Amino acid sequence: MNETTTIALNSYAQLLAAVDAGEQGREIFDPATGELVGHAPRHSVTDLHRAVDSAVDKQKEWASLSDAERCDYLNRAADAVEACAEALAELISREQGKPLSGPGARFEAGACATWLRVTGSHDISEETLVDDGETHAVLNYRPIGVVGAIGPWNWPAMITIWQIAPALRMGNAVVVKPSEYTPLTVLALVEILNTVLPEGVLQVISGDGEVGAAISTHEKIAKIMFTGSTATGKKIAEASADTLKRLTLELGGNDAGIVLPDADPAAIAQDLFWGAFINAGQTCAALKRLYVHDSLYEAVCEELRKVAEQMPMGVGMDEQNVLGPLQNKMQFDIVDRLVKAATDSGARVLLGANPDYEAPGYFYPTTLIADIDPDNPLVVEEQFGPALPIIRYSDVEEAIAEANKLDVGLGASVWSADRVKAREVAARIEAGTVWINSHGGVDPRIPFGGIKHSGYGVEFGVEGLKGVALPQVING
């Protein structure tokens, strides 16, 4: 590691100065205060072509290293992130809006180091398929080439690491394109990683939608990893068809949770809350619609309300806050529209649903909506914000049918005192991951991905590594 460089990036001012493009760049504002954070570079498609050409040149040398050597680089990169973690967390908070405290910006920065280390720990040894004295066949995984990583604005640093760590481990070079809403965080993260990595193996292009579209069609990019909306994912799939790119698409979700009649409302309330409201609900695999049995419906509503009203929301740099604003005006308007659809229909407001439109920042109050029709827009559309509809059911078959009726299937959860019964229900839910008595927790050892319109391919674990590599069988 270049310790001098890394240490020079371990204050917020130094880290921001390293990535700020100056007045010629695009202004980035704090979604909590409206204050200017910094200026993002305005990279072009021409800049993308240069970055990809450089990545092609460097990839073969990177791939020629042993797997152990690449894993060592990932561990050293984790050290570099940890050395700069507080500065990175402050930038995340100021640009994305999530608080430093709770499962917020410090959590995200720490997760980056964890994912780097665990990604370097998986065993991907050669697999013997047949060895019967006549046939000897083995399976290995080889690098794809250059991976294009297109990330979102909700967890900009952590999801970028989810994309680049496995790609690098498997011998690929990576070109990253961050969201236009949160480019500074990703630029800073790449700056930190590149104090350790060989020059050119990891590059970042901060551009607009035209640059993203060019990644989808670029003939020298062999794989795309994308996290974002289903609509954009479909465009990427269509645009990449001519070059037959490999794709990992982690797209939108509208995760259902089912509370069974034997659950303890007080015992599950806090976990229900964080399943729904982590990052102010701006998480693909957050709990977005909650189905509760008649027998404990009012108790769950009341216990959730008691937890929710105790969670302070405000500017992320204030250590007491654990919830922040929505990251941008577009998302604020979506949440506001959907909550209005619920209240206009006569649904019962347990908490929130009354934003201060004159106050600075895109703050939407923590909102719980009860007695809502299961076909209300707040239920069937993804709100991606701090508003949870709670739907009453009387028969578990009804709840399973409601959970499965949408065209998305990222995550889901079942809440019960009986884990055997919960697993039986979980097995019937159409989702890539179903949690029992929790929601949304991801683990770098456990594959994660969606079904239906929530995308395809998985990330994390050995299966995630295989998704950024090409299988090769040697038979003989």
Secondary structure layout:
Layout: H1 3-7, H2 12-19, E1 26-29, E2 36-40, H3 45-64, H4 67-83, H5 85-96, H6 105-119, E3 127-131, E4 136-143, E5 146-150, H7 156-169, E6 173-177, H8 183-193, E7 202-204, H9 209-217, E8 223-227, H10 230-239, E9 246-250, E10 255-259, H11 265-277, E11 287-293, H12 297-308, H13 329-344, E12 348-351, E13 367-370, H14 377-380, E14 387-393, H15 396-404, E15 408-409, E16 411-415, H16 419-426, E17 433-436, E18 451-452, E19 455-456, H17 461-466, E20 469-475
What is the assigned CATH homologous superfamily of the largest domain?
A: Aldehyde Dehydrogenase, Chain A, domain 1
Strand order of the largest sheet: 12-13-14-11-10-16-17
Please bin the fraction of helical residues: 25-40%
For the CA atoms, what is the radius of gyration?
23 Å
N-to-C terminal Cα separation, in Å? Answer: 42 Å
Strand content: 15-25%
Q: Tell me, what is the CATH class of the largest domain?
A: Alpha Beta
Low-confidence stretches: none
CATH architecture grouping of the largest domain: 3-Layer(aba) Sandwich
Mean pLDDT: 97
Using DSSP, what is the number of strands? 20
Shape, principal axes of CA atoms = globular
Total of domains: 2
* CATH fold field value of the largest domain: Aldehyde Dehydrogenase, Chain A, domain 1
Name the structural class: alpha/beta
Structure, described:
- It is a single chain.
- By secondary structure, the chain is α/β, with parallel strands linked by helices.
- It folds into two domains: about 5-250 and about 455-475, Aldehyde Dehydrogenase, Chain A, domain 1, CATH 3.40.605; about 255-445, Aldehyde Dehydrogenase, Chain A, domain 2 (3-Layer(aba) Sandwich), CATH 3.40.309.10.
- It is about 40% helix and about 20% strand.
- The protein contains 17 helices and 20 strands.
- Strands 12-13-14-11-10-16-17 form a seven-stranded mixed beta sheet, sandwiched between helices. It has a six-stranded mixed beta sheet with strand order 7-6-5-8-9-19, sandwiched between helices.
- α2 crosses α8.
- The protein is globular and about 60 Å long.
- The two termini are about 40 Å apart.
